[in-house]
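Troubleshooting: if your tokenizer reports a length mismatch, compare against these two reference records.
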Amino acid sequence: MYTFKQDGDRFVVSIDNHQELMGAIAAFCQEQGILAGEVSGIGAVNNATLRFLNPATKHYVDKTFEEQMEISSLVGNISEKDGKVYLHLHANFGRADYTVVG
């Protein structure tokens, strides 16, 4: 699912190809006992489901992009919710036509 290196209290994690990004990061944190921290990253994905909060309805709207994209920015935090790792991430994905979704 992933490989990692540790330097003090910092980790560099490489997610294996075709793994679900959020699930792999959450599994890593759970296995390492990390319940608080910051996340940043770059890389690539084959698809991404993005979530947008509609301010009028207070409901999230999901949209999936099924294409190869570069992760140009990934930032967020790790916390604990109901005894489990909870990730809050924001990302920008570069497309082949040089547009960005995020």
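Reference record two:
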Amino acid sequence: LCIPHFEHILVDEYQDLNRAEQVLIRELARQSHLVVVGDENQSIYSFKFAHPEGILQFHQENPGTRDHTLNECRRCPRHVVELANALISNNTSPAPRALVPATNDAGEVYIVQWRSLQQEAEGLARFIEYAVHSGLASPGDILVLTPRRQIGYSIRDALKSLGIPAHSFFYEEVLEGDPKKLEASKAQQAFALLMLLVRPEDRVALRCWCGFGSPSLNSGAWARLREYCEETGTSPRAALEELLESRRLRIPRTGPLVNRYRELKEHLSQWQGLRGHDLLDALFPAEEEWAEELRSLAPEGDDFSAEDLLNTLRTAITQPETPTDVDYVRVMSLHKAKGLSADVVIVAGCVEGLIPAAPDKKMSDREKEQMLEEHRRLFYVAITRTRRILVLSSVTRIRPAEAHRMRACIRRDGRTVASRFLSELGPSHPAAKEGTEWLNELGVTV
């Protein structure tokens, strides 16, 4: 292995790298001066296999390391720093390190509650309208962070109805869903179809398509198909084609795969050759909520091919970029806000099951605790995006159907439980106010 020589290597956000990336950096820096910057309290990417222990163990793995602690917070007002320190002190691993505010400006912090998600969206939109028209902040200096895109869409639409420019950024969520249920995996199915339109022999997309809608993802049937393909050197698609069209080939208990393949062929024959908005409407219907964000990412014009659409979507989803110099309100997930800042930051949907998310029942106690601590770090990152005003918003009721769709925790009567993180903000956190009362105190007409 020929390793290039660099005199200096600088790495930011070291806590977000996975173990393999950290080892690669160490190898690249064997003959170099290496500087890494990171904060283990801001490690929020376990789903990308982030290894925050790497920065804690850096001294052991790199003898002679000199440590410089940068704990002065130059962004946030003093009160927000106090709340953030109180919150993160509830984590035990790694040991929390307190921030020191660089300013004596206290800032403004509000904790508000609404009766429903609709009232929350309309009320927060009214507050943003007030902030813009009163000169508190321009639209581009307002961030709205939500744990679910459905909440974000409602706030964005409420803002637009008031004439306030707003855009949503939920690209990382557009392919979320449950592949074991057809109704809950429509975006995933559409993306697999697009992949197969462009690359008919794509084995990953074909495997996904053949598994959708099955509690087992048709794993047993696929294993039997794969065994036949390995023995004969046949591709999975060619084998499925032969199973569908020929009576000579028989592979026991592969009927569900053949049925899915038959449906695939029907779609591909109908959509082959479609371009532009005809293709977009076939794959991602305009009337479907799940398709909204995907449609917004499509190439401009009306003559793009399936390959153009696939390349554009794949780049936007895997390498998302959030604009920083904008003239509109940005609505996005808490994860997406990493690295951003704004004069006004609103965190909506602060209820149990959303912030923090409900753990999987199959998790061990240790895994549940690790998940809770990461979500606490995520909330810590979210509230420290603000330069002046922080609003933490929750609702007291969510309709059962909405709660099920968003995986929120509710009681039988539909009542929610406010996020435990709100009570972990320490003794200096403000008392919660009813949303309409809060707006009235600000002089906002509801």
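Descriptive notes for reference record two:
- The CA atoms of residues 33 and 56 lie 19 Å apart.
- The mean pLDDT is 91.
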